[in-house]
Amino acid sequence: MLRKALDSLYLGAAWLAALFMVGLLVMVLLSIVSRLLHFHVPGTDAYAGYLMAGAGFLALAHTLKRGEHIRVTLLLSALKGGARRGVEIWALVAAVALSALLAFYSARLAWQSRQFNDISTGNDATPLWIPQIAMAVGSLILLIAFIDELVLELRGRRVQVGSEEALRNE
Fold it and tell me: How many CB atoms lie within 10 A of CB 143?
């Protein structure tokens, strides 16, 4: 049941990232059309940036779980057995620590932006905590995904991405 909930969390974040990408497309098209028809919609560039950042952060966990993150496998391919597993565990512990810091400071940034009423310097004057929420949530979900990967590795249930899968990236 926990596995299904985690997979649903990663998939939900990916769908939300996809919605952000559609919103990004709408902002870019609105900007282009407004220039062609000689009217101005304030904030389209800023909102496009917020949506792009949000999409990137929200997609991180799903990308990790599908094995699509870039990995340097030169060292890992030379290692076998316990040495390889030790390096994998070390890398996952480091990733958990770094993603925990990212999640903490992303959430703190959004919280402080809300406390200080920090607004965008652009003509949209958006309260910055609103777009920063996507970064904080995406970072938190990435932390959960790395903990999930570490637990799976420690239990011997982690699925390794095969070299043929790594080569299918365009």
Answer: 23
Which pair of tokens denotes residue 71? 């990995």
Q: How far is CA 76 from CA 85, 101, 160, in A?
A: 9, 26, 11
Q: How far apart are the first and last CA of the chain?
A: 35
Q: % helix / strand / coil in the chain, to the nearest 5? A: 75, 0, 25
Q: Is the pTM of this model over 0.85?
A: yes
Q: What is the pLDDT of residues 91-126, one digit of tens each?
A: 999 999 999 999 999 999 999 999 999 999 888 889
Residue with tokens 């949506």: 51
d(CA 6, CA 1): 9
SS3 category, 45 = helix
Cα–Cα separations (whole angstroms), residue 9 to 3, 83, 90, 132: 10, 32, 25, 19
What's the token pair of residue 141?
């979900």
- Which residues lie across from 119 on neighbouring strands? 127
Distance CA 68, CA 158 (A): 15
Residues 6+ apart with CB under 8 A from 145: 6, 10, 60, 61, 64, 65
**Of 161, 146, 71, 167, whose CA–CA distance to 102 is shortest?**
146
31 with 39: CB under 8 angstroms?
no
